[in-house]
User: What shape does this take?
Amino acid sequence: MKQQRRMPRRVFIKGLASSAAGVLLAGCTRMDPPTYGNVLRMGDLFTYKAHRLLLRAHSLAREYDYSDISSVPAIGTTNPADPAKCGFFSDEYGPVYEQLLANRFTDWRLVVEGSVARPRAFSLDELRRMPSRTQITRHTCEEGWSAISQWTGVPLRAVLEAAGVHSSARFVQYYSYDDWADGIDMLDALHPQTILAYGMNGRDLPISHGAPLRLRVEKQLGYKSMKFLRRIVVTDYFDDNGSKGNIQNGWSWYAGI
Amino acid sequence: MSNHRGWVRVCHWLAAAAFMTLAVSGFLILMVHPRLYLGHAGNDLTPALLSLPISNNHRPDELHSRVIFTNVPGAPVTAERNYDIFNQNGWARSLHFLTAWILVAVGATYVAIGIVSGHIRSALLPRGRELAPRALLQDLKNHLRPAAGAIGTGPPYGLLQKLAYTSVMLVILPLMVATGLTMAPAVTASYPFLLDLFGGYQTARTIHFFGFASLVLFLLIHLAMVIATGFGRQLRAMTLGNQP
Assistant: This one.
């Protein structure tokens, strides 16, 4: 009898331990960034949760005056078509970008798909005809520098509404011509200052700053504001984008700090 | 002989470990962009208040394809940086913030117990008459010729000791937290007064650096005093406590 009673208890404790390990390994649910048991990623997850719990969801990042606009370096990939430049060149998308650049982006399309009612591709002209927002904001790089620029674009929210986001959608993933992948949660995606920018400081977005279209996520660090966008995918669950995403490259997915 | 209380010893070593981790990770973060500025914007294309020779990441001559945004003198420009830089921020930043959470938790616990138990008031805050110039001068003189045997291992603390501990715990460390939060874009969106309080993102970063420098200075003097008054017995007093 005793023996028999002990076994289920041991199984129970084992089950408890493995589910606790599961929480540590995988994050809390498929709604959260995975930690893969890495203590630094657990810290990132804690910061993300604390920000979502403690900070005001609808607050705006500071907007500056025209006279505050500063010089700004272009770092990372400065031309996805040029393998000679430091940064990231994709054998798959680099030549495609070169073609698009040659035609002044008339053939460029932004694909919006995933958990949406009307998946579609937007041309640059279509995006320009949508409601626009112009904001003078501070780009804050994880490296420690900052720059103030004026950005003009269409709110991501308007594009998502045009595609008809399902009510089950929780994240927005985005992909670039230098073959990066990243994502934000719906709170940041629907934020009024989160825009798909085609203009910078009163002119077309320069190539080195992500032409023809880049994201601006003003409540996070610069690396979330992806340049050279090619595709947006709405998802119901968290996607760490595998080896192309931040987490598996040793970086925090959430960069509000 | 005077003694450190148990909770003081636990908090001391947790805070010491957290501080060392923050100092090293913070220095690595600084190495990635070793230039300091005032105001909201500052980068490789703008003049620096202070440029530290701790990495080779700032190479203005190697920025190319310079473009001026408007045809006005002094107008903002852009230029491409196509060289590789030293950057360990992936882990250094995450480690810095994780440790900052831990130090804030330890600090809050310390201050809470310190207030409730009366430790902060009785052992750390200087009394009015201690702050007289003559008393200050006398304590300074005492520090210049320390007599190891005569000096205790815990409270009561000397005047300069009290001032050093309270300024680190109640002024500099809270300032480090506040300037650190001012560098977080999500935090300043919710609390924009932080940007005005410190005069901008880059000013907050510069204050954060000088806070770091003063904490390192404190650590060096602290260690020198520990060594001068008997390293072994001070270490024993802060770990095991004095045995009766």
In short: Residues 43 and 66 of chain B are 15 Å apart (CA to CA).
